[in-house]
Each structure stands twice: as structure tokens, then as C-alpha cells.
């Protein structure tokens, strides 16, 4: 008859089992992490862009169809003003489509300016699928179309949220009269930890490096951001303003969140934009 195992012998037998369990857990965790990272890389654009293809009603102005440099067909709305002092090119954020900005762009026109608002590729009635290079091409097509309507010094770019990326790219490569940066991030890589905390930001291929670009944009600039922005941190707006070249102005909204600046703070919002546009009427 075998003698019962001593306590020390039981511990010796237990340690290899615990070690194997830990190694298995670590191996499984690592595999899961790698799978998540690979999937995030494969579907990066789906984590950035949330286009809505439906619900775009009739244009309150004129329907415009543009063709980007790569051949993609882009839809937009154009609102001419009979005594326009400038023209706003509106570039919207990463979700929805033109219909969600109907009131915004119509109110812009009432400030005494022409307005061209486009749906990026993949949004609304526009063809294609969104990506960084594509949004740059769409914005450039809109700018080129406006060149037949007005002069570059009368074009004011308005980039909302993600749309600030194409707006900053455009302002850094072509002449324009002004740039309005609203609720924008410093770069797509800086936003990555907020969207997917476990994803290494250096693996993000999409750049939208607004912070780098505003430092060399020489036209007049207005930065607007809500202090209670729940999507893009307010401090990113502050960093963009601090890093921007002169001339520059800012307007911070104490109770403003990400999607409601022109709704919950309509009087302050539109009066601030109107003030920025004043020099164009002189």
C-alpha cells in the first residue's frame, strides 16, 4: 500500500498544472489580440466612416454633380446668394449625409454667402466608398468647381468633425480665403485609442494629420469646439488652435457637445461665423 503524498509533493504536482493553465491563458489572449488587431486593420475604414445612402431629399438650392480626379461621381447642393460676399464649401462629418446638414447649410446661406455642400463618396447619392485619399479628391473636385463661380480668395472652407481633415488638406494645398475648423481631432492616429483602446495607434493607416497641416496654413482660420464634446476631446481643439499659424481665431462653447453646436447654441454659433465672414464684405 502506497504512503499518502506529503504536502510538499502535492505542491510540486500542482505547480506544473498552474503553469500550463497560465501559459494557455496567455497564448489564447495573445491569439485573440492578434485576431482583433488584424480585423481592425482589415476593416479600418468601417471603424471610421458611417455613411448613410438613404434619405437625401430635393436640394433646397441646385443639385450639383462633380467628378473627382479618380472618376468617382460626387453629389452636392449649391445655394447661390444674390449678393454673396463669399462662398462656403461645407465638408461634413463621418456619419449621415447632406440631409442631416440641410438646416446648417441653409442657415449659412442666410449669412449672405453662397454655399456648396457635398456628400463624400459613399454618402448619400455619391458613388464609391470613403477613404482618406478619396475624400481629399472629392473636396478638390468641389473646390475646382467653385473656381468657375468665384475667386479663390472668396472661398471659405468649413470642415465639420472628420470633414476638417479634407478641409485642412485643401487649405494647405490651394489658395483660399478662410478656413473654419469645427469639432476636429488633431489626427486620426490620436483618435485611435478612443475608438479601439487596445489597437496600437502606429498601425493606423489613415492619417488626417490636421495638427501638422494647420501649422502651415496661412489663410484666416476660425476654430470652434464644444467643451463637453463627447466624441472628440475638447483638448484636441485647443491643441489645433495652439499649433495653428497666424492669423487665427477661436470660439469655445462651454456646454457644447459634438453634434449640436449649431442647434443648442444657434445664436452664438451663427453670429460667430457671421463675424468671421465680415471682412469678405469690405
CATH class of the largest domain, please?
Answer: Alpha Beta
* Number of helical stretches of at least 4 residues: 10
Whole-angstrom Rg: 25 Å
Largest sheet: 8 strands, mixed
- Elements, N to C (H/E): HHEEEEEHEHEHEHHEHEHH
CATH topology of the largest domain: Rossmann fold
Distance between the termini: 107 Å
How is the secondary structure organized here?
Elements: H1 7-42, H2 44-48, E1 50-51, E2 62-67, E3 73-79, E4 87-91, E5 95-96, H3 102-109, E6 114-118, H4 132-146, E7 155-160, H5 164-171, E8 178-182, H6 188-195, H7 210-214, E9 220-226, H8 234-243, E10 248-253, H9 261-264, H10 266-277
Helix pairs in contact: 4-5
Core attributes:
2 domains; two-stranded parallel sheet; 10 helices; 10 strands
Description of the structure:
By secondary structure, the chain is an alpha/beta fold. Helices cover about 40% and strands about 20% of the residues. It has 10 helices and 10 strands. Strands 2-3-6-4-7-8-9-10 form an 8-stranded mixed beta sheet, sandwiched between helices. Strands 1-5 form a two-stranded parallel ribbon. Strand 2 (about 60-65) and strand 3 (about 75-80) form a beta hairpin. Helix 4 (about 130-145) crosses helix 5. It is globular, with a radius of gyration of 25 Å.
Amino acid at each position: 500500500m502506497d504512503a499518502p503524498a506529503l504536502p510538499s509533493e502535492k505542491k510540486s504536482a500542482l505547480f506544473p498544472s498552474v503553469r500550463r493553465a497560465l501559459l494557455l491563458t496567455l497564448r489564447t489572449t495573445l491569439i485573440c489580440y492578434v485576431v482583433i488587431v488584424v480585423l481592425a486593420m482589415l476593416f479600418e475604414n468601417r471603424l471610421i466612416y458611417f455613411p448613410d445612402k438613404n434619405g437625401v431629399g430635393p436640394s433646397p438650392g441646385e443639385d450639383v454633380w462633380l467628378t473627382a480626379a479618380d472618376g468617382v461621381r460626387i453629389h452636392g447642393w449649391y445655394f447661390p446668394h444674390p449678393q454673396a460676399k463669399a462662398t462656403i464649401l461645407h465638408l461634413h462629418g463621418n456619419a449621415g449625409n447632406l440631409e442631416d446638414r440641410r438646416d446648417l447649410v441653409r442657415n449659412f446661406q442666410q449669412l449672405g454667402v453662397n454655399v456648396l455642400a457635398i456628400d463624400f463618396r459613399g454618402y448619400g447619392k455619391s458613388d464609391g466608398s470613403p477613404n482618406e485619399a478619396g475624400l481629399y479628391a472629392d473636396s478638390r473636385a468641389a473646390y475646382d468647381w467653385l473656381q468657375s463661380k468665384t475667386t479663390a480668395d472668396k472661398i471659405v472652407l468649413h470642415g465639420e468633425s472628420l470633414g476638417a481633415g479634407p478641409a485642412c488638406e485643401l487649405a494647405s494645398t490651394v489658395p483660399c480665403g478662410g478656413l473654419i475648423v469645427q469639432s476636429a481631432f488633431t489626427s486620426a492616429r490620436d483618435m485611435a485609442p478612443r475608438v479601439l483602446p487596445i489597437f496600437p495607434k502606429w498601425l493606423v493607416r489613415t492619417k488626417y494629420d490636421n495638427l501638422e497641416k494647420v501649422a502651415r496654413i496661412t489663410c484666416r482660420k476660425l476654430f470652434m469646439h464644444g467643451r463637453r464634446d463627447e466624441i472628440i476631446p475638447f483638448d484636441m481643439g485647443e491643441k489645433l488652435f495652439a499649433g495653428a499659424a497666424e492669423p487665427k481665431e477661436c470660439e469655445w462653447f462651454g456646454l457644447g457637445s459634438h453634434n449640436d453646436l449649431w442647434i443648442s447654441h444657434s445664436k452664438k454659433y451663427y453670429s460667430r461665423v457671421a463675424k468671421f465672414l465680415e471682412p469678405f464684405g469690405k
